[in-house]
Amino acid sequence: FRGHTAPFIDLSGPKAEVSAALDRVMSEEIVLPEGEAFFLHPGELALAVTYESVTLPADLVGWLDGRSSLARLGLMVHVTAHRIDPGWSGCI
After folding, report:
1. Half-sphere CA count of 73, side-chain side, radius 13 A
2. Domain spans of the chain?
3. What pLDDT does residue 86 have?
4. Fewest beta carbons less than 10 Å away: which of 7, 21, 66, 89?
5. Strand, coil or helix: what is 31?
6. 32: nearest Cα among 50, 17, 15
7. How confident is the model over 43-72, as pLDDT tens digits?
8. Residue 59: HSE in the Cβ half-sphere, 13 Å Cα cutoff
C-alpha cells in the first residue's frame, strides 16, 4: 500500500468510486523470488497470498488460523475470514 492518511475507505459507494479509492492507496504488485526477504516497516501494510494451496471437496469446510507467536511480535498474518469454502481450490 502507498502511504496514505485516510482513516478508512468507504466500500459502500458505487463500484467506480470504490475502485478509484483503492487505486489511490494500492501500490504495484510485488512478486518475490523464493527465498528473497521482504521488509515490512512499522505503520506499513501489505496484503499477500501464501504458496500453500488447498483443494477441498464439496462436502468439507476448511478453517485457517494464524500463529499467535507471530501476532505477539505485532505481525497479523491472518486478518480475514477463517473459513475456507467447500469446493475451494487455490492458494490460501
Report:
1. 8
2. 49-92
3. 96
4. 7
5. coil
6. 50
7. 777 777 777 889 999 999 999 887 778 778
8. 0
